[in-house]
Design goal:
alpha+beta; three-stranded antiparallel beta sheet; 4 helices; 12 strands
Length: about 180
């Protein structure tokens, strides 16, 4: 194996270590986590129409563009909603109606009212080959794990720095947050 492959393999070990350290700090501080859910669209089952639902799929800490599960799995954030009574259709815009539908789906998923629910997230493979080829929020560049804040930008920040800042914000939220 060449030196860049060795560097990338070492970077993957470092990523896993950073993630487990972050889980330990977040758990120890009692940081607020959020619900994860899989969207199940409206469908028919045995001649009965089932409305769309956000089905519980675990919990994770939101770290900006990343979601970190308690077992160290990492996800790219997707969409977010709150479990609230959806209210009546207002027909203001299609996007407002879509948000209303997701709130209703979260309530049908039996989340607590007001709960933050993440859906449409994507798992991030934590192997060197996948991270080298990644166009998502976490990637390997020159043997270093970096996070891209936004898909529309080329700017990146080193993963250790990113996690330290985000974990600190969750573990010690600003007063009034």
């Amino acid at each position: 194996m060449d030196s860049s492959g060795d560097q990338d393999d070492a970077a993957v070990v470092r990523i896993r270590t950073l993630l487990l350290d972050a889980v330990e700090r977040l758990t120890g501080s009692g940081a607020r986590d959020e619900a994860l859910a899989q969207f199940i669209p409206r469908h028919r089952k045995l001649l009965i129409t089932r409305e769309a639902v956000l089905q519980p799929a675990g919990r994770a800490w939101r770290l900006g563009v990343l979601l970190l599960a308690g077992d160290g799995r990492l996800f790219a954030t997707g969409s977010i909603t709150r479990a609230l009574e959806p209210g009546r259709p207002a027909y203001q815009s299609q996007s407002a109606e879509d948000r209303r539908a997701f709130r209703a789906a979260a309530m049908r998923g039996h989340f607590e009212p007001g709960e933050t629910v993440n859906h449409g997230f994507e798992p991030i493979a934590l192997d060197a080959e996948s991270l080298r080829a990644s166009d998502g929020p976490l990637m390997l560049r020159d043997g270093m794990a970096v996070v891209r804040w936004s898909p529309s930008t080329e700017g990146t920040v080193e993963l250790a720095t990113y996690l330290a800042e985000r974990v600190d914000l969750l573990a010690h939220p600003p007063q009034g947050a």
